[in-house]
Amino acid sequence: MEKCGVFAGFHLPNPTYQLLGPSRTAIMLLPPPFFTEKRPLFPLPLQLQKQSHFGLCNCSNGSGNTLRVASPTSNVATELADIDWDNLGFGFIATDYMYIMKCSQGENFSKGELQRFGNIELSPSSAILNYGQGLFEGLKAYRKHDGNILLFRPEENGLRLQMGAERMCMPSPTVEQFVETVKVTVLANERWIPPPGKGSLYIRPLLMGSGAVLGLAPAPEYTFLIYVLPVGNYFKEGLAPINLIVETEMHRATPGGTGGVKAIGNYAAVLKAQSAAKAKGFSDVLYLDSVHKRYLEEVSSCNVFLVKGNVISTPAIKGTILPGITRKSIIDVALSQGFQVEERSVTVDELLDADEVFCTGTAVVVSPVGSITYQGKRVSYGVDGVSQQLYSALTSLQMGLTEDKMDWIVELK
Ligand code: COI
């Protein structure tokens, strides 16, 4: 697949084209193979301007001053959105554009468009609202000091969405469509990508049964939607260690269920245990398997790892655990650093004996666990060793600070 960005039927080579400010007009976008056309296929409702080279970086703080950063799509510095870049958390912020593509049951996604970000219309009888026929994804874009914009393994999210769609009886965009539409949405919202070191642009693709049903059945129509927003740290603790409680009654997933895909309902199912844990002062919940109530599964929004000496262990992917892309990447990074990595059943008793525990996920990145409470007993862990080392290795790669020997980074030049 080509690495250059594609926008509204144009190639975005370097020199590239820039969207000049938000427009209320919908921007028509053509799917691959039309994305690779070098000429516009119809008059564009967008103001596009050819620009030549990078601008200068001048990012200070988010205190109301105009911030400018280098842009690969501009010969002048890109003006950033006027928000407090120094205090980004993980919360909703409305940005400029979202991407929407629809298709009927039995058909393939073929044509979508960028629209101004806003509320969407859904039938009260839609399959997503009534029966939860829906999936989501999560990935991030980073702004590099030279103005380039980096995506981390977006094709992995496209593949995972396809696997989930198969489980949920939905059509799915191809991996190529997924990656291209992510690129288009990120570039359209470029002013919302945090300056280097201040956070990332979180990309949230949704796939849902948007058509109306009443009897339980797959929807007659599907919507693929991508929105984006700038984020900082996921946990309110920031980069400080989190404190988990092991849940012994409620379960996140059951064998044969949808725990292994990113079904929207998986996340509603953990809210009760998570709220109770937070009310008691814990950061989040660690779930056990629903059959033996003995083996570790995952935390509400992320995978879990234990460290003992040179061995790093994590629950194997066996249907109830989400195949995290950060999980998979951390395994490879750890192996490349000489750790032994075991994907297997990990008992809750092993927690008591671990040197370190940490969580991985797109949102949480690599979060050290400071303590785990199980059946009233609290165990504390070291936090400055392995998880810190892996966090640095992964984030340096994601932000373009180290050489991408794994070929994981997609540059939006
Ligand atoms: C992510 O890490 O991207 C997720 O999808 C988890 C979500 C609960 C924030």
Biggest sheet descriptor: 9 strands, antiparallel
Count of strand segments: 24
Mean pLDDT: 85
* Termini Cα gap: 14 Å
Residues in helix, %: 10-25%
- The CATH class name of the largest domain reads Alpha Beta
The total tally of domains equals 2
Roughly how many Å is the radius of gyration? 22 Å
Q: What is the CATH architecture annotation of the largest domain?
A: 2-Layer Sandwich
Structural class: alpha+beta
- Proportion of strand residues: 25-35%
CATH domain topology of the largest domain: D-amino Acid Aminotransferase, Chain A, domain 1
CATH H level, superfamily name of the largest domain: Aminotransferase class 4, branched-chain amino acid transferase, N-terminal domain
- What does the overall shape look like? globular
Low-confidence region ranges: 1-65
What is this structure, in a nutshell?
This protein has 413 residues and is of the alpha+beta class.
3D architecture notes:
One of its GO terms (molecular function) is branched-chain-amino-acid transaminase activity. Belongs to the class-IV pyridoxal-phosphate-dependent aminotransferase family. Pfam families: Aminotran_4. Its cofactor is pyridoxal 5'-phosphate. It catalyses: L-leucine + 2-oxoglutarate = 4-methyl-2-oxopentanoate + L-glutamate; L-valine + 2-oxoglutarate = 3-methyl-2-oxobutanoate + L-glutamate; L-isoleucine + 2-oxoglutarate = (S)-3-methyl-2-oxopentanoate + L-glutamate. This protein has 413 residues and is an alpha+beta fold. The protein folds into 2 domains: 5-231, Aminotransferase class 4, branched-chain amino acid transferase, N-terminal domain (D-amino Acid Aminotransferase, Chain A, domain 1, 2-Layer Sandwich); 242-398, D-amino Acid Aminotransferase, subunit A, domain 2 (D-amino Acid Aminotransferase, Chain A, domain 2, Alpha-Beta Barrel). It contains 8 helices and 24 strands. The strands form 5 sheets. Strands 4, 8, 9, 10, 11, 12, 13, 14 and 24 form a 9-stranded antiparallel sheet that branches. Strands 15, 16, 17, 18, 19, 20, 21, 22 and 23 form a 9-stranded mixed sheet that branches. Strand 16 and strand 17 form a beta hairpin. Mean pLDDT is 85; it is low at 1-65. The protein binds 2-OXO-4-methylpentanoic acid. The site of 2-OXO-4-methylpentanoic acid (COI) has 6 residues, from loops.
